[in-house]
Amino acid sequence: MMKNHSKILAIIPARGGSQSIPGKNIKLLLGKPLIAYSIEEAKKSKYIDKIIVSTDYPEIAEIAKKYGAEVPFLRPKEISGDRAMDIEFYYHALDFLKKDENYEPELILRLAPTSPLRTVESIDEGIETILKNPELDSVRAITETPKHPYKMYTISNNKREINPFLPKAFTNMDEPYNSPRQILPDVYVHTGAIDISRLKTIREMNSITGKKIGYFFMKPEDSINIDYAIDFSLAEFFMEKRQKQHQDE
Predict the structure, then answer these.
(1) What is the model's pTM?
(2) What is the DSSP letter of 207?
(3) pLDDT score at 1
(4) Angstrom distance (rounded) from CA 244 to CA 237
């Protein structure tokens, strides 16, 4: 397998606590733990040279090792809660690998296990995007947003009315929420499936993204992110469809 000269680390963050779906990261999706899909696709990459799972749960660690990821540590509980910032587990992992293994990557990928339909083709496209554009601090996967922000609302202080989320001063439109989507500006959403950062962006800018954020597109069906039970059902549907297509080829 071809590997790039740059050291490229994939971190799969998989904390144990999930409020919406208990045990989400190792819940079975068509008979396989959810986290396994991310590990398997990362292993196919022609660029990634190291794959680790950052988790606070021994059970997740054992399953991750079974599917071929390294779990060199258990993440401390204080950076594993609902309100912990992502950059905290980046620093923890990078500091550990530098001190314990004398390993320091140039690029770091965050591959959330909650995006099981992400493909190796998308992973490698993201890596190639940042390799070809040295001015970029980071790269993120995006897709067209299914709900336009011009059609979103907040609830008023009196709890009886809704108000446009974006004021006219921003949209420069009287009633964008009553307008056809086709005349509204194109808007894209960060899928959360693939985030790529330079080490110097994290170390020197104390940021995962920095200021210059590159992008590449992912298909909406590949971008499904599992937050709730309905998302799990949707992922099962598309994964089953994909597997059937591969069987028929």
Answers:
(1) 0.91
(2) -
(3) 42
(4) 11
